[in-house]
Specification:
Low-confidence stretches of chain A: none
Number of strands of chain A: 11
Oligomer: homotetramer
Strand content of chain A: 15-25%
Radius of gyration of chain A: 22 Å
Largest sheet of chain A: 7 strands, mixed
Mean pLDDT of chain A: 96
Helix content of chain A: 40-55%
CATH topology of the largest domain in chain A: Rossmann fold
Order of helices and strands of chain A: EHEHEHEHEHEHEHEHEHEEHH
Largest interface: B-D, 46 and 46 residues
Amino acid sequence: MKKIGVLTSGGDAPGMNAAVRAVVRTAVHGGAEVLGIERGYHGLMHGQVRPMGAASVGGIINLGGTILRTARDSVFKTEEGRRMAARVIEEHGIEGLAIIGGDGSFRGALELNRTCGVKVVGIPGTIDNDILGTQYSIGFDTAVNTAITAIDKIRDTSASHDRVFVVEVMGRHNGFIALEVGIGAGAEAVLVPECGRDLVSLCRKLQAGQGRGKMSCIIVVAEGAASASDIATTITQITGIETRISVLGHIQRGGNPSARDRFLATRFGHRAAELLLEGRTNLMVGIEMGQVVELPLERVVAGRRDLDTSLLALVEVMSI
Amino acid sequence: MKKIGVLTSGGDAPGMNAAVRAVVRTAVHGGAEVLGIERGYHGLMHGQVRPMGAASVGGIINLGGTILRTARDSVFKTEEGRRMAARVIEEHGIEGLAIIGGDGSFRGALELNRTCGVKVVGIPGTIDNDILGTQYSIGFDTAVNTAITAIDKIRDTSASHDRVFVVEVMGRHNGFIALEVGIGAGAEAVLVPECGRDLVSLCRKLQAGQGRGKMSCIIVVAEGAASASDIATTITQITGIETRISVLGHIQRGGNPSARDRFLATRFGHRAAELLLEGRTNLMVGIEMGQVVELPLERVVAGRRDLDTSLLALVEVMSI
Amino acid sequence: MKKIGVLTSGGDAPGMNAAVRAVVRTAVHGGAEVLGIERGYHGLMHGQVRPMGAASVGGIINLGGTILRTARDSVFKTEEGRRMAARVIEEHGIEGLAIIGGDGSFRGALELNRTCGVKVVGIPGTIDNDILGTQYSIGFDTAVNTAITAIDKIRDTSASHDRVFVVEVMGRHNGFIALEVGIGAGAEAVLVPECGRDLVSLCRKLQAGQGRGKMSCIIVVAEGAASASDIATTITQITGIETRISVLGHIQRGGNPSARDRFLATRFGHRAAELLLEGRTNLMVGIEMGQVVELPLERVVAGRRDLDTSLLALVEVMSI
Amino acid sequence: MKKIGVLTSGGDAPGMNAAVRAVVRTAVHGGAEVLGIERGYHGLMHGQVRPMGAASVGGIINLGGTILRTARDSVFKTEEGRRMAARVIEEHGIEGLAIIGGDGSFRGALELNRTCGVKVVGIPGTIDNDILGTQYSIGFDTAVNTAITAIDKIRDTSASHDRVFVVEVMGRHNGFIALEVGIGAGAEAVLVPECGRDLVSLCRKLQAGQGRGKMSCIIVVAEGAASASDIATTITQITGIETRISVLGHIQRGGNPSARDRFLATRFGHRAAELLLEGRTNLMVGIEMGQVVELPLERVVAGRRDLDTSLLALVEVMSI
């Protein structure tokens, strides 16, 4: 393969730059040219491309966000949008594309492959960690670390004021972030979209805790399960206990990538570029049982990863 | 003076523990006994006191929050509340009190002195930095650093997605945090309660920026000036530009104190204990023109520090 | 099982407190009493024990080091030393012991089991990550993150001054830390004890880089491979290029545990306590292929984990 | 003034980029052109200049190091060197120069002004904080924070192992960093070049501490006072107490600037550019008693700031 394009798509995630760097350097090392495509599929449709040499990705492994920028574009989802992209691909002689993003981006990749035959390999990059076929996606570890560090700060106030805090973390459709954050932050309860929530027994637990002098408390809630504000209001209504809320929001999405995200992103980007150099297509790289693997994109986009809800029992034991 | 009490009152602030440590060790070094009073004036009224030796404050200089805990108590504001406190003071033979908190706490200290003659010295501890007579209060520097670090992360996403973010920081009555955060984070605009806000010209500036390719932007707003959500909505209404919001909230209040807050708190606590050992009263320690000073509490509680709004012009120049 | 002891042994590692917390709360939840043993086997020999309830491990999940303290004691390696420990175990009615440490500590655990029949379960806690039978040990992830964050800072100076830096990281016998740090920090070369080092070709690479304008460079060396100072001197001798060194040292061992270390430690401590409650012995808990597993301590202490040196090739490709 | 140059010189310091940004944007705002000069006086002599617009300094306020790079060049200290620089200045029509660096750089600035009449304004940028005429120089606050954060980690190990650590911090000629780090980290002793050190009484204190159970201890030493290794050896010789050492080294020089350094650098850069725009010369901007001031460079280079060694008494009281 002589020319490889690389793009980032969907929500940004810390470690995307490390993946871009790994794709570029592996491709250059393998003798291919690389084109960086800006703003994901939007830029692909509009020819926003620039050549990237080994030096162009120096000093970015530690930066959050994505130097290629990212965007969502509804036009690309149409036949016409994909034809625009195909024309740009043809004009520039792009033979293979490394797509860093989530499952929506991978669906687009498959469509693009169908449209013009360009080889596509996906790299899972999303803080949500819900992509089928990989235990971790790029950005998740950083997001969890950021949220835990934030809750460590909140706990200072919680403990100093004997207060109950409800902290809302990201996770519109699942509780991956909430669960690991809750366990790592030592939360007294974790609410995830995957499980019904029993606020009555939670309230009973809070009251029992206060009965024996445990006045401060952290409850972690995934945004997809409920809003912090609703949970806090309900707790106060049932128990009369004063509560405070914190919505961590976008800070979870940025920041310098953690060690693990850099390591993962580097290995993913490296393997993805190797696969393209070998002329393979319609694959995603992932990590399963500690090994970097590749698997068909078709299978990846067929579903979502399920949360291991058995770990919620661990939260229960840890918060006695 | 033979026996000194120390308490933290009002909202917790990073560095309060460093101040407690400095009070305790200075007093012990000066030959006095120290009693730690828990939960501020609430604990004082209810006799929640414990003896503190030099070793009892080991390993706390780096901890956020306050190991003495803090509380607000409306009963203390009554004559009856202060009599309860006076009884506890007499019972335990407390001759002097170091009060770490804000101006509300200092008003209470003056009342307490009037009630029972206990010597009182205040140590300014509040992230708001609005206490008259001191350039800095304990916790402000940490809060500003925390907010800036958070906005650094948000900027990753802002830049990657070409997005306008409105970030709400603490500051119910003033813009101290907002202004220093805005300058340090390189914000494109800062809205503070002290100044009327001209959203129309802000919108014009945003549009002009977008016209020359500057798509991403951070606007910092003090909670007392407006809600992030209101500002974001208005910007979208006027300009059609998509916005995102982030409310930093309680993370600004906790966390390990910064170097400056530890240094300041240590010097404040040291001087406060020295003043009590000398039998002085109704004073606050502060920092003015780089020097630790003492000044009458009466003067401190007579007003609030004013923000140097001329620095808003600096934001303007920096965001061209 | 009615009474469980828990101790930390060998070098401290971030996350040990999270593991202690998980052992204590799981045991209490399972109806057992828990004794905390201070200063590892040293404290066990000298009866330095204290009862630990669920509340005694509150607020420690985020603390580095170990609240139980740790020590090395050569006496415990003697028959007499183990008899002293056995007497303390008998006196206090300790039926099971959770030992958090490395393979030396696990050898001691097996000897102790032989001496007096106490049930023992090991929890891998060492930043070195070289324990057989577990992909990760507690503290490794934090140590790698700390080192990478430090090198990010050094790179600021390296890039600003166009300088070559040689950075020495921990790893007396292996290159686990060096390899992940090198990849995550984007190092131009990594030297590990497992592989002979070819300084001549490294020098050629440095010179080639400088020829095309790449003046700054980070070389990561495991302390067991060479000293930073020796490598730097040799590079200067061969190439004439000025170098700087940095020995990261003990900062790698402390600090608040990372998300992953807290998660791992909590799961390890939980499982270890469960195993003891079930009356099992001579096991270590570990993580393999993403799952928490248990395996015979005999097998664990029979060797050391090997580094996947194939990843060094990744460093080569990434540093073109 | 129509054209202003800006350069960074000497050792890099966090916040230099914020100062560059402030100079550039203030000058552009004032209607002047700006040239960035790379690698300090070296680049000035060799014509390494590039035009800088307002956008060229976007996204750098939070970066450590200096995007303009820095260097030391002995040729510039010669008459010939300064003539080379003067020719470049003339060729490019540079009328004023903002020099970010330490007193050596300011001496060069004065010489340059004598040589060719270019207007020069200095901005104090050095982590050492020893520049006469300003209470703080850019980078000091970040360096102190970095060192304290590192020692917080070391204290985890110190406390867990009951060990004495000797930590060496930067400060070849003075104890500014050592003193603020020692106070902020809660060190038991601080050794600075300004004061003779009495190791015998330090040892007596350590032994007394151990006598009452205080086994762990942190001693901070400025590199200019002694090497950590020498101090540690002497302590062991006198007391028999086992010690560990840590040399923090270059990590103190890099990293994202703290809030205070960004704020200071922005104000300094702004004022320096204003002064140049007004046609003034041979000045340094500084902060005294909380106000940004300007003062003659001649006076600045006539000496060094003195450390307030009375604060060492504070260390004594805090470490009882």
